[in-house]
């Protein structure tokens, strides 16, 4: 990974910390995406003795692998986190989240793989190698999101809801108190009232 990919991962981590309000939970999609990219890129590098592959193909595979790896993990992690907060057993929740959101992950991954593999249709060797290499990395990312990720979520147990970033936790608590106040209408209701 080059400096631009590292900057992208750090920005993604910052956004995930803001969304999940927990560093531990934010790290899960990042770690699984990095594992998927590592496996995908190492697999591509193993084929370089047979196939001519330039650095652009590897760079595209890294970028797409990180993007879809984080995205696909978000589907499952957010579903799992909600279910655990509602009192579901973490292992059962990991299985259910993968069973429900995992279907969307597989479908989205298949769509991306088909689109990338379609680059082979133009019959330009450079584009064919680039598309198939990136498609292989996306396949690995889908497999990681549907196998390793649920195992990590089940292993973490209740810790998925703890380890909040203190300043963000206070902000979330204030927002929850404001939403719970029956005298204060929710933002959606205020917006609907203002626009109609």
UniProtKB/TrEMBL annotation:
Region annotation Disordered: where it falls in the sequence: 173-196
The entry's keywords: Cell membrane, Membrane, Transmembrane, Transmembrane helix
Primary site of residence: membrane
GO CC annotation, single: plasma membrane
Residue ranges of coiled coil: none
Biased composition range(s): Basic and acidic residues: 173-184
Family: Belongs to the resistance-nodulation-cell division (RND) (TC 2.A.6) family. MmpL subfamily.
Name this polypeptide is given: MMPL family transporter
Organism: Streptomyces rubrogriseus
Lineage of the organism: Bacteria, Bacillati, Actinomycetota, Actinomycetes, Kitasatosporales
């Amino acid at each position: 990974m080059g400096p631009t990919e590292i900057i992208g991962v750090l920005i993604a981590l910052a956004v995930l910390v803001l969304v999940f309000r927990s560093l531990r939970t934010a790290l899960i999609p990042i770690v699984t995406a990095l594992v998927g990219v590592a496996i995908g890129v190492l697999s591509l590098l193993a084929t370089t003795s047979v196939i001519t592959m330039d650095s652009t193909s590897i760079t595209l595979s890294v970028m797409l692998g990180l993007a879809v790896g984080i995205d696909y993990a978000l589907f499952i992690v957010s579903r799992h986190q909600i279910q655990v907060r509602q009192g579901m057993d973490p292992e059962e929740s990991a299985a259910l989240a993968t069973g429900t959101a995992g279907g969307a992950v597989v479908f989205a991954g298949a769509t991306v793989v088909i689109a990338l593999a379609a680059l082979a249709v133009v019959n330009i060797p450079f584009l064919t190698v680039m598309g198939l290499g990136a498609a292989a990395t996306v396949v690995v990312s889908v497999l990681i999101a549907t196998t390793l990720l649920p195992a990590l979520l089940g292993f973490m147990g209740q810790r998925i809801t703890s380890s909040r970033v203190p300043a963000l936790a206070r902000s979330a608590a204030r927002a929850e108190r404001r939403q719970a106040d029956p005298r204060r209408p929710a933002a959606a209701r205020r917006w609907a009232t203002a626009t109609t």
